[in-house]
């Protein structure tokens, strides 16, 4: 092979190596930019979120049924535990069941007051019910501090290209974090420990008496 041929072959090999190197670097950069710990990618954060529930109302109803009253009572109990703000009763406007919904809203207001909600914390409003058909629901809503993670279902990168370093894909672990956040009854527990309650003096004295009165029988073993 002459000198010109050797130079051409060397240039071709260098060009191929450069292309392969650039591809490898691009994959490594893309993969390395994503944290491998799903708790870092999808942290559980404390923030406010709207809590809602829809109560479907039939056209012929003249108020809340017993089952609906139980659902409203449960929602009110959760409101009393987690919020001190406004709770809204939102009724359909322009629907066939608007009259029945108004009667159910009155029952709902009285039930909320019986559950301990202050009257000045109850706000009633309406919404256009054209898209809800004949059984347009009344909606209860309030805002509370909640533990939450996500949103899930985001795919910022092609997972087919994210296999060089065997790292987790971006959406991995998001559903688990969201489910864990939904199970936290008191989000304030994530902010810090609660204060200690006073010691039970009577229980402590009982334990000390049992300790003092305890005897151990020693037996000689053959």
From TrEMBL:
InterPro entries: Pilus_biogenesis_CpaD-related, Pilus_CpaD. It holds the Pfam family Pilus_CpaD. Keywords: Signal. It comes from the Bacteria. The keyword ATP-binding does not apply. Residues 1-24 form the signal peptide. This is Pilus assembly protein. It comes from Pseudorhizobium pelagicum. The lineage of its organism: Bacteria, Pseudomonadati, Pseudomonadota, Alphaproteobacteria, Hyphomicrobiales.
